[in-house]
Amino acid sequence: MGKVIGIVVLVLLGITGLVFFTNGLGLVSYSFFAPRVTAVDNKVFHESQQYNDGMLRDLENLKLAYLQATPEQKAALKGTIIHRFEIYPRDRMTPDLQNFYDSVVNQ
């Protein structure tokens, strides 16, 4: 009877060790693959139609706000405009937005 209990205890310890080992492998594989999956998700997001339409709409709204602003408001908006335009690829902007951005930067 003592041998049976000993064998059962060893089997349970072996199963527990196997569970911890496979969990460790899961953490290792997650740390390896997670950055790659995130990079692909980020690339897909930035190439989506909704993102591009939304960014162009935001840039157009900033342009409109700047054109309607007082000189004091324009000074306050300039930093925001420069930041928002710099994070969006220039080749995806309309020529009108590119010219507006150049005029704001060169002021």
Give a description of the structure.
The chain has 107 residues and is mostly helical. Helices cover 85% and strands 0% of the residues. Helix 2 (49-67) runs antiparallel to helix 3.
- Radius of gyration equals 28 Å
Structural class: mainly alpha
Number of strand elements: 0
Distance between the termini: 91 Å
Low-pLDDT segments: none
Number of helices in the DSSP assignment: 4
Describe this structure in a few short sentences.
The protein is mainly α and about 110 residues long.
Keywords:
107 residues, mainly alpha, 2 domains, 85% helix
Lay out the secondary structure.
Blueprint: H1 2-46, H2 49-67, H3 71-86, H4 95-105
Helix pairs in contact: 2-3
